[in-house]
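Following up on my earlier thread - several people asked me to post the actual chain instead of describing it. Fair enough. Here it is, all 316 residues.
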Amino acid sequence: MDELMISILEKSKYIALKYIKNLDIAEEIAQLSAIQLYLNYNKIDKTKINNWIFTVTRNLCIDFHRKKTKDKEIFINPITLSDMIPYEQSETMTELDLDVYDFISQSDRKLLKKYYNENVPLQKLAQNFKIKRNKLTRKIHSLENEIKLYHLINSDVIFFNPLPSTKLTKNINNFIKSLVKALNISNFSSMKRYCKGAIIHETIKKIKINSYETCKIQIINEKNYQITIGYLDPESKIKVFDIRFNITDSGNIQVLEMPIIPEKVLVIDKKYIDPKYAEKELLDRKGLYNNKLGSFDELEKNELARVIQTESDFNE
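Reply from S.P.:
Thanks for posting it. Predicted structure:
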């Protein structure tokens, strides 16, 4: 039992460090996991002990983040048009109990079990499932991202990029494509399916998109989100606005309110940061500005950043 407990501590600490970048806290969480194992040992299916460790450790990490009393007020990131984000997935999928992902079809879960849990080679899998190998590789990648997105949405992460090859990403891309077209021709008839019952502000008439650049999603609560859209206006100036929306049971986008114009948007002068490492230097794991160069107001006051947009730009 002693050897088992040591093994549990090491595995749990490794998993915890994926969620919490603090060795002392990760070790505390590992100890709590080991205690829970000791108390529930007779109830645990020994063939799924790795799944049990992963689940318990992850839940303890999430509880830790939820209990922290942090100011989660979010302002528009100084590097609006860069990739800010945060999610770190465990390096191996074998730690996961694939049956918990009921949003994935039973046949696809069977495929993943064969690949990850039974280590069946891709070529043999392709033959068994009667699918070309390159198509199978793309399918597995897509299913992996659906699982990553599931954990991302159920974690404490605030901002994230849409993940490629996922249903949510496809729906968001279709929504943005329709939105850009509607904004530029000032005709929202094609947006009715997205905007039923939504609050639409008059400032929407001020938005003209020359080039859509990027978006970031903020998790508000279960099924409720806010998307930050970065674009270039007809004068090639960077502009930003937010849209609040929820996701229906069928996975579609339902707008709640748009556009939401931030009070002020700043961009940090490049001479104060190394562009190559800008994200790592200025953002925490949630994609939020870490105040390394000062507060929002200090950045502007000390001329470390310049204002590229204000709320009044859309009210004139």
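The chain is about 40% helix and 15% strand. That should answer part of your original question.
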